[in-house]
Design a protein that fits this description.
Number of domains: 1
CATH superfamily: Electron Transport, Fmn-binding Protein, Chain A
Number of strands: 9
Order of helices and strands: EEHEHEEEEEE
CATH class: Mainly Beta
Number of helices: 2
Largest sheet: 5 strands, antiparallel
Shape: globular
Helix content: 10-25%
Distance between the termini: 30 Å
Strand order of the largest sheet: 1-2-7-6-3
């Protein structure tokens, strides 16, 4: 599920935050769930990111995934996975800010897919 923003918040305890637009079709699911998973896509997964940004479709149709121990969707071939329990939520204007405590992580080597200034980009060294 596509969110507007994702950020690391704290190392002790390990906390992250996601921001979801209140008019998004996934807003209710994310704000009522006990937790969530952040799937960090690899650079080669741009088509998956584009699919999840389309409104009013079955985003998971044709996309491989498994379920976490809490039944959250973990996308196949994700570069990294961060599984969180929801700690709190707060109003952020036209978005809801959801804080999650990191319960489990997995990371593979590779290049992440980045979205910057309205398009997909690569990191340069």
């Amino acid at each position: 599920m596509t969110v507007s923003a994702f950020a690391s918040l704290s190392l002790q305890p390990p906390l992250v935050l996601i921001c979801i637009e209140k008019s998004a079709s996934v807003h209710e699911a994310l704000t009522t769930a006990e937790g969530f998973v952040v799937n960090v896509l690899a650079a080669r997964q741009e088509q998956v990111a584009r699919r999840f940004s389309i409104v009013d479709i079955d985003r998971f149709e044709g996309v491989g995934f498994t379920r976490s121990s809490h039944s959250y969707a973990i996308l196949d071939d994700a570069l990294a996975v961060i599984e969180c329990s929801r700690v709190s939520m707060c109003d952020g204007g036209d978005h809801t800010i959801i804080l999650g405590e990191v319960e489990a992580t997995r990371a593979e080597s590779g290049t992440p897919l980045l979205y910057y200034r309205g398009g997909y980009a690569q990191l340069e060294r």
